[in-house]
């Protein structure tokens, strides 16, 4: 017995002994930009470096789920000579990377030669600051948690990471994994393509803080966008500015060395949809760096200069616009058979053809033939329905691309595009994508899923990239998504101002598109301008409607037909929300982002949008009409709930609204809040007086107009607080109050 | 058996065989009898077959006649059905489905009650400042009551929104007329209230929702003058449309019927072009093209607004002798009709169909 026990033990040990492994032929390593910073709803880039320590290799590099040996998300042909090193990059949504474990594989034919699993990937969901500075402690005061009341995610909760200049990507979409990029005093050089990506990213809504000495190498590429005050007046002393902003009347230091004496301590410029914040002193210098109110100072800076607002706007954005792919899946000229037709065909067979066949066979005394004839008839009928029906569903291969373009300036535009492809006979095909774009396949439903029906391919030069769909069944829709930047699309020239209750001015189409439809959206009001060809100018003169909530939403109505569904989805793509003035054009132009390699018909629906800046009217005043500026809920008490986006049902409680009056570059002169309108008369109305620190009641039939006394009600964040209360039990509906601001443009 | 017996066997066997042969011969001789039997049987069989054929012939001779009877019967039934339909549709165009769903005092306003657009419920304003909704499912009349906001005024008229989820209610006190919007919960048991507009020194009543529920048309009376106004339900825009009262918005947004100086008129709100139709009150849209109104308290006049109103259709209302119609409202697609009839000191609210 002991002998057997010994032999069994030996056998088990042998099984568990790891064989000596030969050295792996390839060194595979990977990295992501920004030092691994990733946000779950953004794009990222996986940079793979392969070194070949063996013989020459020709095969494919793939990014694949670990649990699948034959499916890959991305693949690229690769050739490596002995001792050669190559870098290959894959661009993909972070969500795709994080959804399940993935691996980088080298494949030769069907064989996996070597594999490297992706580990240590994590995402950040809070506000993220990337800092490029010689000091490791720069801007760390922003990450200290605060005892102050919650002011929103952006104001309170930052994760900070020090970065090397090398870690900056050269695509602006990848910088969306940051919310703020702070460049301080750094000896590192930022390359031109990286700087260009940063500027594009700011224009798209990013926040760039330039806190270094303008002479520092890292600051060099940003001189052209560095905010600068040109007014011939000496700014307040730095200590005065710090005292004003921090609320501490006597800081415990007598001076703060600044880089340029003729510039204020903080200066903010809008650049496209984003902000550039210039800081005129060394944030790491003592004693201010470790001053106990330093964080408070910076919180106030972020609030006052609308940086917090810009951050919240950015953090509410999404990287993949699924409404584009949803709409693209409803290909024009494709008429799927209705369920009723299918049921009728089935009933005809069941109640007519099959019984008639049986009766005929019975009549001629050949009932036994039914075993063969009836199934044969079913097969023939199926084939007939397929052959005839296929032509009725769609006559030719077809594709539908829905794109949304955000014009950032005359030169630069951000483009997102969803496309669907339908081949009559199915099979395998490639869809070439513009190399300047990041392209991925999506699930047939139009949503992101790791088992998407296609895979991304690229050749070694990465100039020929696209998506491959294999073994597609006939009449099956496949979907893809692409995002990138385009240049030279032009822009709309707008000269619009508000005078009295009218919006007036002109709009000129200086884009490269002819638009079949054009709209101006002013808050909830949509002004139709009709078609607008390239170069065409239209005069505008429209009464500003005082909307306090959007019109009855079509989304609430049941959809009965494809046309209704398409119309509703087009509205979602247009996504013209509140608190903005923008111009939208709709065109059927082909942007040539996707090029399928099959012959067929292509349809396009392209939406071009551009925010519009109001100009001073004849009185040199800029008027922001009702509904254009933001209102937020500062606090609530009692029983309340939202009955729609802009209305609250309130009983035995109150709601305090913050009216965001201050605007960058505007010296506010008048604020009108029409609380005398009927919906507000049934509430108790109060306004907060910041001078006295008390709430002031407003009469039932009175509204609010602030001019000379505006400063008494404007708080340090540039907001006016209004409180509306309902002490009764019955639920009263309170529309969000709106207001009009009139001011003068400040000169720089 | 012994040997002797065995020796004797061949002799016995020879005689047996011969006997057998003799017997067979005799049997053969008897065969003619079987042949005869066979022939008789065959003859009987042939005869039977003939009889069967004859009887089958009689049957098939009978089936053409049966088929004719069948088709005559079918034709008769179809004709009868058609006749019934014609007779019913012509003889009695509007008939009561539910009579006396609600009874209200006659001193109240007939506009205090309205039929929901899907025809499945009515709502009315009670004396106790309540909004009462009554379900019309045929089996029972389930009621829900919602208390209206406490005011010094009187709630006098109401109108269901097309969505069926909102109501507009007009309230009047000495100082002002108001229109409230009530958002109902799904089961109609409670609601939230929004003051849409307040008209100081004026009386507001007769409310009608636009097809997309984005506008209200209402009557505003001040200094004895009745005016038709439009108000947005999501902005503060409002405008005067015409002089008149009792507005009724068509299922398509741009047409509005109203009454001015006793004349029913249809106006296009986009172009302001109007078209008089005839003397009457209480206009209501049965379909997008067909408008009905009350002529003399007993009859309803139906007019196609796209055609000349020279020969309108007159539809008698299902009223009792002492009753007179004061208000009618159609549900969507003209399936049901709210009929408010005055009978002495009462308003009888009924639901009819056509």
What is the mean pLDDT of chain A? 85
The CATH superfamily of chain B is known as TolB, C-terminal domain
Quaternary state of the chains: heterodimer
Q: How helical, in percent, are the residues of chain A? A: 10-25%
- Spatial strand order of the main sheet of chain A: 7-6-3-4-18-19-16-27
Query: Which residues of chain B sit in consecutive blocks of at least 5 with pLDDT less than 50?
Result: none
At the first level of CATH, what is the class of chain B? Mainly Beta
> Greatest contact pair?
A-B, 26 and 25 residues
Label the structural class of chain A.
Answer: alpha+beta
What separation lies between the terminal Cα atoms of chain A? 97 Å
Strand content of chain A: 35-45%
Q: Helix count of chain A, per DSSP?
A: 12
Shape of chain B: elongated
Distance between the termini of chain B: 113 Å
- Largest sheet data of chain B: 4 strands, antiparallel
Structural class of chain B: alpha+beta
The largest pleated sheet of chain A is described as: 8 strands, mixed
Q: How many domain modules of chain B?
A: 1
What amount of the residues of chain B lies in strands? 35-45%
How many DSSP-defined strands of chain B? 24
């Amino acid at each position: 017995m002991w002998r057997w026990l010994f032999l069994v033990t030996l056998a088990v040990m042998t099984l568990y002994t790891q064989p000596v492994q030969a050295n792996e032929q390839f060194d595979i390593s990977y990295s992501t930009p920004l030092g691994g910073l990733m946000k779950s709803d953004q794009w990222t880039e996986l940079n793979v470096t392969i070194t070949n320590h063996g013989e020459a290799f020709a095969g494919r590099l793939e990014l694949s789920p670990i649990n699948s040996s034959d499916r890959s998300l991305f693949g690229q042909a690769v050739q490596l000579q002995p001792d050669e090193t190559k870098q290959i990059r894959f661009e993909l949504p972070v969500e795709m990377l994080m959804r399940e474990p993935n691996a980088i594989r080298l494949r030769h034919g069907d064989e996996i030669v070597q594999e490297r699993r992706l580990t240590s990937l994590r995402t950040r969901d809070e506000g993220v600051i990337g800092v490029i500075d010689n000091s490791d402690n720069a801007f760390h005061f922003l990450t200290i948690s605060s005892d102050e009341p919650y002011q929103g995610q952006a104001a309170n909760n930052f994760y900070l990471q020090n970065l090397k200049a090398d870690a900056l990507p050269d695509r602006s979409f990848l910088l969306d994994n940051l919310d703020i990029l702070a460049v301080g005093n750094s000896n590192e050089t930022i390359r031109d393509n990286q700087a260009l990506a940063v500027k594009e990213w700011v224009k798209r809504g990013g926040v760039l803080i330039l806190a270094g000495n303008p002479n520092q190498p890292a600051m060099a590429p940003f001189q052209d966008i560095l905010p600068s005050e040109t007014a011939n007046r000496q700014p307040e002393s730095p200590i005065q500015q710090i005292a004003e902003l921090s609320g501490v009347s006597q800081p415990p230091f007598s001076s703060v060395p600044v880089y340029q004496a003729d510039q204020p301590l903080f200066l903010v410029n809008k650049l496209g949809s984003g902000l550039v914040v210039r800081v005129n002193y060394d944030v790491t210098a003592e004693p201010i760096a470790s001053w106990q109110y330093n964080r408070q100072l910076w919180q106030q800076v972020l609030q006052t200069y609308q940086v917090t607002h810009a951050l919240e706007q950015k953090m509410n954005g999404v990287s993949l616009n699924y409404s584009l792919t949803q709409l693209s899946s409803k290909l024009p000229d494709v008429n799927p058979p209705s369920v009723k037709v299918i049921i009728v065909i089935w009933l005809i067979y069941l109640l007519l053809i099959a019984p008639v066949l049986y009766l005929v066979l019975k009549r001629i005394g050949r009932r036994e033939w039914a075993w063969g004839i009836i199934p044969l008839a079913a097969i023939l009928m199926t084939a007939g329905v397929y052959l005839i029906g296929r032509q009725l569903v769609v006559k030719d291969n077809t594709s539908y691309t829905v794109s949304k373009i955000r014009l950032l300036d005359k030169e630069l535009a951000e483009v997102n595009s969803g496309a669907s492809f339908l081949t009559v006979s199915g099979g395998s095909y490639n869809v070439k994508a513009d190399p300047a774009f990041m392209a991925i396949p999506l699930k047939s439903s139009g949503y992101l899923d790791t088992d998407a029906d296609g895979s991304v391919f690229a050749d070694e030069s990465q100039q020929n990239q696209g998506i491959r769909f294999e073994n597609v069944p006939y009449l099956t829709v496949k979907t893809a998504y692409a995002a990138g930047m385009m240049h030279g699309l032009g822009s709309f020239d707008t000269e619009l101002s508000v005078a009295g209750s009218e919006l007036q001015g002109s709009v000129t189409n200086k884009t490269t598109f002819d638009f079949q439809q054009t709209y101006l959206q002013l808050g909830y009001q949509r002004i139709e301008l009709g078609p607008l060809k390239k170069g065409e100018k239209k005069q505008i003169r429209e009464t500003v409607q005082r909307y306090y909530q959007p019109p009855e939403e079509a989304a609430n109505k049941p959809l009965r037909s494809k046309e209704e569904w398409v119309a509703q989805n087009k509205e979602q793509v247009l996504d013209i929300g509140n608190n903005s003035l923008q111009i939208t054009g709709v065109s059927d132009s082909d942007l040539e982002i996707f090029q399928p390699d099959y012959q067929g018909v292509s349809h396009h629906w392209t939406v071009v949008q551009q925010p519009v800046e109001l100009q001073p009217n004849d009185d040199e005043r800029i008027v922001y009409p009702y509904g254009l500026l933001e209102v937020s809920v500062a606090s609530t008490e009692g029983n309340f709930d939202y009955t729609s986006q802009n209305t609250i049902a309130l009983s035995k409680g109150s709601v305090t609204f913050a009216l965001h009056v201050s605007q960058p570059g505007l010296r506010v002169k008048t604020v009108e809040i029409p609380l005398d309108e009927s919906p507000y008369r049934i509430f108790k109305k109060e306004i907060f007086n910041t001078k006295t620190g008390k709430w002031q009641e407003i009469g039932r039939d009175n509204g609010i107009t602030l001019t000379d006394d505006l400063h008494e009600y404007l708080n340090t964040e540039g907001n006016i607080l209004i409180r509306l209360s309902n002490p009764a039990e019955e639920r009263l509906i309170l529309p969000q109050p709106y207001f009009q601001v009139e001011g003068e443009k400040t000169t720089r | 058996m012994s040997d002797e017996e065995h020796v004797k066997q061949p002799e016995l066997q020879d005689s047996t065989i011969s006997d057998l042969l003799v017997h067979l011969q005799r049997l053969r001789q008897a065969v003619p009898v079987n042949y005869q039997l066979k022939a008789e049987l065959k003859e009987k069989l042939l005869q039977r077959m003939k009889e069967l054929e004859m009887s089958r012939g009689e049957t098939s001779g009978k089936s053409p006649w049966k088929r004719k009877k069948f088709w005559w019967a079918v034709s008769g039934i179809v004709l009868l059905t058609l006749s019934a339909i014609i007779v019913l549709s012509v003889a009695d165009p509007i008939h009561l489905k539910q009579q006396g769903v609600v009874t209200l005092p006659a001193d109240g306003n007939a506009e205090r009650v309205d039929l929901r657009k899907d025809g499945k419920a009515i709502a009315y304003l009670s004396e106790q400042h309540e909004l009462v909704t009554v379900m019309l499912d045929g089996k029972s009349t389930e009621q829900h009551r919602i208390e209206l906001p406490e005011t010094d005024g009187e709630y006098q008229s109401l109108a269901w929104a097309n969505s069926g989820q909102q109501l507009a209610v007009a309230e009047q006190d000495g100082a002002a007329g108001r229109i409230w919007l009530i958002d109902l919960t799904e089961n109609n048991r409670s609601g939230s209230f929004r003051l849409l507009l307040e008209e100081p020194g004026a009386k507001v009543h007769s409310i009608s929702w636009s097809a997309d529920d984005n506008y209200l048309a209402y009557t505003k009376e001040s200094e004895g003058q009745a005016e038709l106004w439009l108000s947005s339900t999501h902005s503060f825009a409002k405008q005067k449309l015409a002089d008149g009262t009792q507005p009724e918005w068509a299922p398509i947004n741009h047409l509005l019927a109203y009454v001015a100086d006793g004349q029913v008129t249809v106006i296009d709100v986009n172009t302001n072009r109007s078209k008089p139709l005839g003397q009457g009150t209480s206009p209501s849209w049965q379909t997008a093209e067909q408008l009905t109104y009350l002529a003399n308290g007993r009859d309803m006049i139906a007019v196609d607004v796209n055609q000349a109103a020279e020969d309108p259709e007159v539809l008698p209302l299902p009223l009792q002798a002492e009753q007179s119609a004061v208000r009618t409202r159609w549900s969507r697609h003209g399936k049901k009709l709210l009929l408010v009839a005055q009978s002495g000191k009462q308003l009888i609210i009924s639901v009819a169909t056509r």
